[in-house]
Amino acid sequence: MISLLVGATGCLGAAPGDDPDDTSEVASAVSTSEGFEAGTKAAYAAAAVTLGTGSWNLDDALIGTTTSDVLTGTRSGRIRNSGKITMLFDRSTGAGTVTIHHAVFGTDASGTWGLFSSQNSGSTWTQVGATRTASGSTFSTATFTVNLAGTIRFEIRKLDGGTNRINVDDIAVTDFGTSGGGGGGTGAALSKHTTMGIPAPASSSTPNAFLSAKSGYVESYNASRKVPNWVSWELNSSYLGSTARQDDFRVDDTFPSSEAQAALADYSGSGYDRGHMCPSADRTLTVAANQQTFYLTNMVPQAAHNNEGPWAVMENDLRDLANAGDELFIIAGGTFSASSNTIGSGVVVPDKTFKVVVVLSSVGQGVSAVTTSTRVIGVMMPNEDAQISQSADWHTFRVSVDAIEAATGYDFLSDVDPAVQAVIEARVDNQ
Ligand SMILES: [Ca+2]
Ligand SMILES: [Ca+2]
After folding, report:
1. What is the pTM assigned to this prediction?
2. Which ligand is nearest to the CA of 422?
3. Which end of the chain, N or C, is surrounded by fewer C-beta atoms within 10 Å?
4. Are residues 166 and 189 in the same domain?
5. Are residues 243 and 343 in the same domain?
6. Strands 32-34 and 126-134, how do they pair?
């Protein structure tokens, strides 16, 4: 039995399946982002400085601008000894995740540091996550999962106490209650299949955003629509073998009876295919793994021209990448509207099917390997035979991830550095 809650409790009242037109869950942008660009502080002695986000205290710390400072833009924070960089203001919207860029200053030795949070305006502090080590002369991204509601502020402390100096920059804090926009690895903590992040909150207690984390894929299921909201899975050559397609389409026996499901009869004679989201052919290592893709909870009513045409060719092309050694993270589902068709006992037909694919170059890579040059493929394909030719080239359906986020209200790749998301989600793949 799954009792996990992913994403954020604050959004559960407006689960994404509640209203086909509800896009209120479009993930918020980073709600605090501090790059030190607005301030000046050239001495280490403790003093407050006004930055873009508000007032910060820099103690044994300054704003570095030299060629030995590692920075984004023209300035970054520099800390020595047991110095601290501290917010002197509160956020009232809690914190979901915090990401911070860090590196060593000049040719100094590596330094350790930690992120601390306070929910009583700085009276007491608690370390968030693990101590980090700044060890390189270029920025690494440290991601912290906070998930605290209410009043909160943060402090960065150098912990090794040595005279070596470290730089920090681009401090990004997301609101608590948004499913994404930040780093943090919430998705990876749930499953390798959601390594890139949870697209929208889901839990075992939300019928229209019911979380099902299976060995082969993770999904959020919508009992009102009787189709998944989204299905997320990892694909690489380790999932690919010689198991034959099992074809045992069936009701999902891992679901509680309280989750309304489609039946085989709903699809029979409907004019739509039982369209896999996680494809059968992506899970061919074992019989059990293949059978898991034939749950009706992994299906949407899919137009034959879509499913057997460009959708299928794209699936094949992605497996070719996996067989060639790439690591892929794929999320698929449908878009809906007030006028979406239904079949059978109210199984809702997506207006379009979407897919978001992150292509990494070697197996085992995760969010930290995603850069602004990472290939990301987004597609949206019409899901009525009259609107799509079976011989159409899938490449012609490519769109930005931003466009799919706008159409679905989800935040894809939400565990990727927000600055990187901004770039890769705006781009339409052209490879
Ligand atoms: Ca900066
Ligand atoms: Ca996103």
Report:
1. 0.61
2. 2
3. N
4. no
5. yes
6. unpaired
